[in-house]
Input
Amino acid sequence: MERQSSIEQALQTLKENGLKYTKKREAMISYLAKCNRYVPARELHQFMSEEYPGVSYDTIYRNLHDFSEIGILEETELNGEMKFRFHCCTHGMEHHHHHFICTVCGKTKELSLCPMDFFQDQLPGCKIEGHRFEILGRCEECQVS
Output
């Protein structure tokens, strides 16, 4: 039930940001919410092509970037390729965190410790406006394969 309300919230965010609702957009968001990992655009395009033959890769990619810009998705670059995941903060309850990302399957694990706490003292006089921290490696399952 929680995933469905997160999807509904994402669709509401679309409308609030001037992007109209379409069944294709809902299918994209639902797929990413179900995956719960970083997904390359080509994987999403393959999934969408089964349901909507003829949908262009450019359309998928453009929507992924639009969704990322309005906060529905998170994005990262892995192995030279952009990958996207459904934003893990739901119901407007953002909490600051970072991720371990599996470089093989794209699965993520949330990290509660923020390394910026250690760097703040080393940057006197600087105004930090944002940061990003990811740990890359192989998850338990991908180490075995």
Observations:
- The mean pLDDT is 86.
- The two ends are 32 Å apart (CA to CA).
